[in-house]
What does this fold into?
Amino acid sequence: MNNPSDKVANWLTILETAELLGIPKGKVNRLLEEHTLVAVKKDGQLMIPAELIVAGEPLAPLRGTIIMLQDSGYSIEEAVEWLYTHSEVLGQTPLQSLLEGKKAPVRRLAQMLDI
It folds into this structure.
């Protein structure tokens, strides 16, 4: 798989994410552990795709989708890559579908995956 960094337009540091969400850095780390948010190493620093924050909150359907991808054997980096890769089935990226509230088709697609 490609480096997910290539497909993500805007990145946030842990501190920037904490400020954007109005929570302490420790809570951001907890959100990462729970997969409510995801981060990948970029230039030696954990970075969170900015699109995963919507209206001051983490994108709600992300957690379940990430857990499904991990159950299929995906690493966090591979899951981020998958979210940002155009899907013929969806007609757009899985992330765009999630942002539009189309959680069910994304989850169906994720269920069919197996590395």
